[in-house]
Amino acid sequence: MFESFDATILARIQFAFTVSFHIIFPAFSIGLASYLAVLEALWLWKKDEVYLELFNFWKTIFAVAFGMGVVSGIVMSYQFGTNWSVFSDKAGPIIGPLMGYEVLTAFFLEAGFLGVMLFGLNRVGPKLHFLATAMVAIGTLISATWILSANSWMQTPRGFEINDVGQFVPVDWWAIVFNPSFPYRLVHMVLAAYLTTAFVVGACGAWHLIRRTAPRRARKMFSMGMWMAAIVAPIQIFAGDMHGLNTLEHQPAKVMAMEGHYQSHPDGAPLILFGIPNSAEKRVDYAIEVPKLSSLILKHDLNAPLAGLDTIAEELHPPVGIVFWSFRIMVGLGFAMLGIGLWSLWCRYRGTLDSNAWLHRAAVAMGPAGFVAVLAGWVTTEVGRQPYTVYGHLLTKDSVAPIAAPAVGASLLAFIIVYFFVFGAGTFYILRLMARLPRDPTPDLDEGPIRTAGAAIANPHGGHHGH
């Protein structure tokens, strides 16, 4: 059934599918590990048991997400040997050590302290247990550092030479690790992980506030999630802008695709808000645009000229439609997160953070927003790099293994079936865990009178909807 397909396209789809499943778990576990460290630090500092209760609640969810992230990462890495062996051969002298450093420093650190964090509180004591939690959080950040360094080198390669057999060989490891796009991309990704976790925690707290199942714990979760959203969202927008300027300098074709600029604009380029990219006619149909705003954002000058894709050979154009829309999804969700954060600040100022039902519903609806934004951001950066795997040096079509399309198609089909069953079940289990926040041990008098009699009248079978 796959005879008519192109092996390179199928290999790209397979890698995109597996990496999309993988990235949502590290994006969550990076932020959640830091959140757990904050919860335990607050418990040790304030001696308030609610922080320990929330720590125990979220550590189980972290364990499941961490496990699924490890499994999906292992599966993804096999493709370097099966589908992308030519890339592995050529870029292996650089990518291989970077991935190895991630295992030796980050993964071993996480694995070494994870068991203590999950099961050791009553065995090693609070202070040593907090050290273990902090080490797991630091390990997730070190892991992100090495992975982003490897990927950023593929985006902005530096510090290498190409030998007689076409391999990239290192000549300056400092230049390789700290390549031009690495600092921007690392900050952008870590902030994205923190925002993703903040909105999951906030949505969970809002859900339980709506259901009134555990008001005290839910209020604490919701408040912490909204503080994080309000603080990090504007920082992330600024970091994203700096990342965009760096991309314009080193990968201009990607920015042209993001902006939908098929043609050059010598007297100031418009910001196209929405439209339908038409690569055949080299224009954006039905464009809704703001004149000269793109030049102002990218060059800080209304009349600054901006080059378009017409200055680049057509075979080197990235797929404009995908990059154009994924970028808008990411940016749109970023500003929606900022809006929720500002709304929460206003409600906090007015004293209605715990009682504003519309804010709670909006927070629940925005719970998955971080994951979608992370996926859209990775689609933008990876598809925007095409047609290269190592930008400017190694084309994707020259990186694929000599493998037949039916073989790639069969494994892709198997991945789709297995992933949806296995990770679908895992995600469902995480959602079940989030929905089962234990009730507060004592009635929360701040919530008003306890409506036991009303519940008994409304429900002759006893209890109420929260049970």
From TrEMBL:
It comes from the Bacteria. Keywords: Oxidoreductase. Its EC number is 1.10.3.-. This is Cytochrome d ubiquinol oxidase subunit I.
